[in-house]
Amino acid sequence: MLTVASVSVAYGEQVVLDAASLSIQPGARIALCGANGSGKSTLLRIAAGLNRPDSGSVNVASSTRVAYLPQSGVGPADGCVGDELRRAFEEQLALESELRRVEDRLVEERDEAKIEGLLVRYQELVDVVGTDGEREREVALAEVLSGLGFAGDDAARECTEFSSGWQMRIALGRVLLRRADILLLDEPSNYLDLDARQWLERYLRDYEGAYAIVAHDRELLDRTCDEVVEVYRGSLTRYPCSFSTYLERRQAELDEMARRYEEQQQEIARIESFVRKYRANASKARMVQSRVKYLERLPRLEPPPVQSKVAFHFPPAPRSGRVVVAAEELSVSYGERRVLSEVSVAVERGDRLALVGSNGVGKSTLLRALVGAVPAHGGSVRFGTSVEVGYFTPEGGGTTQVGAVQTDAAGGRGTEAGGSVLGGSSLVADLAGSRSVLELTEALAPRDMVPHVRSLLGAFLFRGDEVYKQLGVLSGGERSRVALVRLLLSPTNLLLLDEPTSHLDLSAIAVLADALSHYEGSMLFISHDEYFNAKLASKVVRVDDSGVRLYPGDWEYYTWKREQELGDTGGGDPPAGAAGRVAGDRATSSGNGSRRRSGRRSAAREEELMRSLERLEARAAEIHEELGRPDVLRDGSRSRALKRELEANAAEQTAVTQEWEEAHHA
Question: pTM of the predicted model, to two decimals?
């Protein structure tokens, strides 16, 4: 359908694409990957017909419709959101108009040959636009609006009322609604929260057309693409496999490249040593000359790209108390708008809590309230003993704050309704000077980490001379990456991280996730990257309009549990090991924000808990009955799955029972 043939692009001396070719056929699901600056976005723009290559061509089959989403830079459109999204239907409306004209001509036409031709065209148009186009369009519009996180009345709001991130959602919605034969999507999940990202994943899996995607979201690529095209040093290489398999294969290739490169370097060194040793020896002149000519003719292998393997360990930090930080009945308002309402959540020593929920529900506000960056209007925040906090936010180009929790006048460690809780230094002050990225990082690094600073900066995309950039001229994304490096080098035992992966590529995300997986302190973090969440989360806290709820298992357990709640699977087995993960349930963690203080329990909540317990007991009875059947007992995988579900069920019954007892005796 679409072919990019031998295209070359250069910016001055820098060659971006060198005789690169790409073919997108019907049904293709392509993940386009490569290092930052390798030419992925350039290739998509060329394929979309927006950029002209220096040489080569782009060929699109007749009647093939191509839709393109840029990575950023979409400005607000005139009019309301609904009308802007309906622009996606312009082609369909034109076809419907033609359909009506064909119908009119069929009524009037008397020539049988022409009638036959009109009937053929009529059927072609009906196949494309359907028989009830207007209703189908409105259903599709409602699905996209809801899936991308827009509220029910947002369709009538002016586009100019929305932030730049929501402008990108509007642009993505318009592209998806076109139902083009080929989608070219450049970072479509960049501005999506987790719920919208998961909806996009399902949408793409069911998409009937072809697509090529550039994304730093490995879970999205893994679940929606079945082939990978890598842009590397101007050329394209196709891998007909999943993204995870590609990573394994590519790593094996890079290891082999590194081995061959090292062997050649050793060979060159041996020959150069021979030449130096015998250059002045007349009897060896012929051999020396032969060796020199050999080196001149030798095709030099290029070193493999820099790998993100960093020898890194966190600086030691004091052991904290059992409860590291707890918010109780916390409320925050911006003007008349209540963002958080009586939220209770706690982080215990060793917890790694992923904070999830749609954009705008108050996740970032909760982190800011914990560190005193926004005032609370009710409730309290209390920190445990010996807590050293590291806080990261992408706002303002990325800043961090690191320090000990300050003690209030009453001797407590925390705040009642909004006092300052976090002391220490901020990266904002660090960036005010004229030091370079390297100078700042070396100054912050513990002595044993100084030799590894260049590698750490390289993993976070500061490579070559970029480490000498002055701090005052850094872009927003560069500031954010410096902030993360600074945080990793600081001695803390509690990390509060707001979207730490937002300015990182896949390799840098992997480095950060790996470093944090070895962190011995506690974490409360927000990320829309599923790989990052799956790598780190030991528990999940979901924030929505109904309050805050703890899912007392890892990311796999959370996704399984949400599927059960939403009815997406029609019932399924819990993930392996779920019972063990569920054991740290509401009963053992004070992080369940939906659990109000005992004095506020209601009869309605007791009734809700009883219904939950009855459902669990009924399912347990069904499992016991199944386990008594001979055919199930002979089926090892089925019986093991049922036993895991029974263990998870028992743990959840214990937790619900304890919560009911607390509510009943309040």
Answer: 0.67
